Structure formats: structure tokens, C-alpha cells
Amino acid sequence: MSKMKVGVIGCGSIAKHRHLPEYANNKEVEIVAVCDIVEDRVHEFAKEYSAKAYTSYEELLASPDVDAVSVCTPNYLHAPVSIAALQAGKHVLCEKPMATSRADAEKMIATAKESNKKLMIAHNQRFVPSHQKARQLIENGEVGKIYSFRTAFGHGGPERWSADGEVSWFFKKDEAFIGAMGDLGVHKTDLLRFILGEEFVEVGAFVETSAKQNADVDDTAVCVLKSESGIIGTLAASWSYVSKEDNSTIIYGENAILRLEDDPVNSLVVQYKNGEVVKYELGGIQTNEAGGQNNTQVIDQFVNAILQDVEPPVSGEEGMKSLQVVLSALESNETKRITSL
């Protein structure tokens, strides 16, 4: 069988560190096209991966050689580029947040159905081994009733990670739409929905721009979330954690406390009510630090969904539900009221 031919639209850091190397490592895939408006950047990646360089995504999408694309553009382009790609008959893996409004997310989902093409959103936290194990322990009843949680995703900011540093689109409201809540918070809304197996019904939030002088988007947010069964907890997303990155989640249950990515060695620590402690060394979570990169599984899952003709594990509908929690948090902050989802 011939290899699946993919293109990557947007050659910033997420493409450089995640999408391109993970496609290159998948034996079912051939990278045939890369696109970016920065000519030097796109030609560098085209040379590295023996792909054709484009500075216009429309021209890339017109190519009959491309079967699927990753959309790794600034947030405001996620929906229009994904919709154009689906209409052009390409399968789409879109970076998070999938869109900047519910209406755009719904249009992406509808277009995928109309074109009979796969749409997957790149929420990688579901595939982290400790998170998979926690979901399993909750599903099989070992933790008992879940009472509460707290989760955080914070680091020093995208200037350390983005290809454009301090002048990155991440800080510009017209291109990013949302800041830390869209960059980091949406990962955690998706993760919590996945681990708890429930939807959120209410959210209250404080969202601030306090750490980044050059930003007109949020850089620090704290939310209180309530699920349909009454589980309550907090979610923090921040670009103001100036030292070590925090990507931890703690679940408080009837029979045990689950500590996820809270210990540098044991990625899951289960503290049982009877005093027993079980430590799982399952391999680290994805980080932006040196040596922290390996396979996120996002690319492999996307490719598998296409080749096996199955629903992607993070569908457009799933991406939209995780986005809606973030949109509701922004609404709560603006109205100073609890928002119902």
C-alpha cells in the first residue's frame, strides 16, 4: 500500500517539535508539503523533510498529492484553514483550541461530515500514560465516588517556546483570541472531561493579564468547575509560572487520592484511604523542556483513524465540548457570574 501523503500548514514550534518529527517517524506517512508565510522558515523545513514548500495554504490544498493536513497556524486561522482543507477533500488534524467560537467549531464539524473526511483535534493529554491509567482506575470503581479535583497547567510563557519569541502571535488578541486559557487551559478542560467521564455544567472564572507587558490576552486564569454529577474542582492556566512548569492533576475520591504528574519520578501516585500508597512509573508527560519530547501519540492516532476508517479519538465534537468550557470561563469573567454550559 502506498504511503499516506501529508502536508503541514504553519511551520512554527508545534510543527517543528511535534507534528513534523512524529509524521517522519510514522512508517505509513510521507511528508509531501509544508506551508508558512515566512519563506526562510518554510524552505528550511521543505529541505529537511524533502517536501514541497508553499507560502499559500490555498495552493497547498489545491494539490491532489496531499491526503491529509495538520493545521498548526495561529488560533484565528484554525477554523477557516480546516474548513477549506475539508472542502478540498483532505483529512484534518487541527491544533487546539480548534476555533475561536462555538459557531466556527460547529461549521468545522459539519464540513467534516459533508466531505466524509476525518477531523481530529490535537489534544495530547488524553494519551499520557498516567492519565490513561487514572481514567481506568476511576472507570473500574477503584477510586469510588469522585468528590473533587485540582489541575494546573502553567509555565513561563510562549516566548520561551514560540518560533517568534516575544513578538509571537500568542500575545495578540486579533490572532490568538485567548491567551493562557486557550493555550493551556483547554488542554485541561479536555483532560478532565476524559478522566472523569463527565461533562461540566457550570463554570466560574477569574481571568487576568498580569504577567506579560506585551500581551492583550489573558496570561493567568483560575476557574471553578462543576460536573453533571456534582464533582467540583479548580483549574489554573498560566504563563506566569516563572520557574518549573506545572502540569499536575489531583483527583480526590471516596477510596483514594490520585496524584498525576505531581512527582518527578512517579507519574501516578495513588494514596488509598487505608494508608496504602501505590506508585506508578509510567514515563513522563510531554514538556517543552530539552529532552522532554517523544511520541505524543497524536499523529499516530490521527493516521490510524484514517487508515482504519474509524472515528478519531479526539473528534471535532470532543474538541468543541472542551472549547466550550473555556468560552464559558471567559463569559463568567466578563459577567462576574457563574456561567451555565
UniProtKB/TrEMBL annotation:
Gene3D superfamilies for the chain: Dihydrodipicolinate Reductase, domain 2, NAD(P)-binding Rossmann-like Domain
Domain Gfo/Idh/MocA-like oxidoreductase N-terminal positions: 4-123
InterPro entries: Gfo/Idh/MocA-like_OxRdtase_N, Gfo/Idh/MocA_Oxidoreductases, GFO_IDH_MocA-like_dom, NAD(P)-bd_dom_sf
Domain GFO/IDH/MocA-like oxidoreductase: 131-258
Name the UniProt record assigns to this protein: Gfo/Idh/MocA family protein
Protein species of origin: Halalkalibacter kiskunsagensis
Lineage: Bacteria, Bacillati, Bacillota, Bacilli, Bacillales
